[in-house]
Amino acid sequence: MMEKLQHKAIFVGAAIGWFAVILQFVLMMQNRVESLTETTIRFFSFFTILTNCLVALYFSVLWYQKPRSLVSRFEKPGFLTATTLYITVVGTVYQLVLRWIWESTGMQRVIDELLHSVIPIYVIVFWMAYENKKAVSWKAIPSWLLYPLFYLVYILFRGHLSGFYPYPFVNVNALGLEKVLVNSGTLVLVFMVLAVAFVGLGKLLAKVKKPNNTTPDF
After folding, report:
1. Alpha-carbon gap, residue 10 to 14, rounded angstroms
2. Residue 67 three-state SS
3. CA–CA separation, 98 vs 168, rounded Å?
4. Could you tell me which of 43, 45, 46, 47 has the C-alpha nearest to residue 22?
5. Which residues contact 80 (CB under 8 A, 6 or more apart)?
6. DSSP 8-class letter at 101
7. Which residues of 182-205 are buried (b: 16+ CB within 10 A; e: fewer)?
8. Closest Cα to residue 123, out of 51, 188, 23?
9. Per the confidence metrics, is the pTM higher than 0.85?
10. Domain segments of the chain: what residues?
11. Residues 67, 74: contact at Cβ < 8 Å?
12. Which has the closest alpha carbon to 202: 80, 90, 113, 91?
């Protein structure tokens, strides 16, 4: 039976996640300059939005415990680590690259902080507390990279067709294809390094938690 504290943490994660994503959608619609369809497509073209939706869905399924197929997949060791990896990149890129590009105000600033700061930190803390770190396999890392790789292919392809690129560092029109490919390769490297760091840190924390366990973790 799920511990009460963990159950409450899952509920809070789902509530914060959906609140931030839904309100961001409302704000984007209120300030749209394109059609409803195009604005919706652009909304779901942001890695921040897609990843925060994944986080909110993860917590929601664990809280509701249905459908069982997703529950079993989400509870499998490594899924939480992958999700934490993605949302950590969201927060890291925002803090190091995007925060200084524009200055949001009012409710938009609140939502920006939730999506890029509060939720990433919350998920990292949840991962530290509840992931079965010892059972997470190094072999899972390549599969974790498929999501960001497919995302990069999608936004570059759609950007070529529509002229819209969700982030300035992948804007082919402004930077040129060569520079964008370099930036994309750097991002993939960041994902790889952080993935290795999360698995390694997780195994280290598992050993510290059970110092008398002599069973190999690798």
Report:
1. 6
2. coil
3. 9
4. 43
5. 58, 74, 126, 127, 130, 131
6. T
7. ebbeebeebbbebbeebbeebbee
8. 51
9. yes
10. 4-209
11. no
12. 80
Distance of CA 135 to the CA centre of its chain: 21
What single letter denotes the amino acid at residue 177? L
Contact 20, 119 (CB under 8 A): yes
Residues in the chain: 218
What type of residue is 54? Answer: L
pLDDT in tens, the chain (218 residues): 458 899 999 999 999 999 999 999 999 999 999 999 999 999 999 999 999 999 999 999 999 998 899 999 999 999 999 999 999 999 999 999 998 888 888 999 999 999 999 999 999 999 999 999 999 999 999 999 999 999 999 999 999 999 999 999 999 999 999 999 999 999 999 999 999 999 999 999 998 876 544 444 43
- What does R_g of the chain's alpha carbons equal in angstroms? 18
Q: How far apart are CA 74 and CA 81, in angstroms?
A: 10
